[in-house]
Amino acid sequence: MLINFFFALLFALPVSAEQFQAPVTDTQWQVIESPLECSLMQSIPGFGEAGFYRRNGGALSLSFISQSHAAKQNNVLFQIAEAPWQNKEQRQTLTSQPTELGQTRFSLNGVLAQQALSQMQEGRFPVIEYPSQSYSDNVTVMLSTVKFNDSFASFQQCLSHLHPDTFGEVNKLTVYFEIEQATLTPVAKKALTRLAEYVKVDDSINQIKIASHTDNHGRRRLNEPLSDARALSIKRFLITEFEIPEQLISINSYVEAKPTASNKTPLGRAKNRRAEITLVR
Questions:
Q1: Are 219 and 242 part of one and the same domain?
Q2: Mind telling me which PANTHER family this protein's record contains (predicted)?
């Protein structure tokens, strides 16, 4: 009886033309958890899906994604509807955005997405309304809160464990060496640790390129093995300390052929005693 009452109230909300929402008796949330992204999505029959998503280093987003109801060139209205059991028809408007002809994804980012998520925790419903090419009047799409709390805890936990670094922050790294040395300094080890920890959680990394260099101090017959040794010291560190697969790592030794600064000064030579590590997807 309670479910029937709830169902009746839910459909008592006003509709413009065609309203889409998950069935009250069969609302399904899907949580995807990884160190790099978290999503909490709901399937909406006849429309597509909607829910929340966050990539590490990025802002929270709320998206409604249609599989069959492309927009006209007009506007999409983002609203918050009161919980059906409150029996109130008014809606709070979050924002209005222009739509392009054929648009099928409608998103809020940052503060507005966080506001919508907070409203769902209080039992309210995010709603979008926009002119669709499928109907003469507007389409209304509602994100249901049914079973929301059952999945929200897992989504929150995922958000709290997102990896702190993004690909753009670690995909290029330069470490420096002392004169005639191939030993990694504590500073270099710390930087390489940060890079390796990211590689361990990002399955899209398919290559780690190491390019080693020397300054022009000393004879070339000594600098060539020194440049090789610097690259190898990085490779060994990644493999032994973090179990990075050897087949991911490639090495190029340039000796003094590609200086990044003038070799005429001590500071310039210090900048040239380096290895550059690049992550490739």
A1: yes
A2: LIPOPROTEIN YIAD-RELATED, STATOR ELEMENT OF FLAGELLAR MOTOR COMPLEX
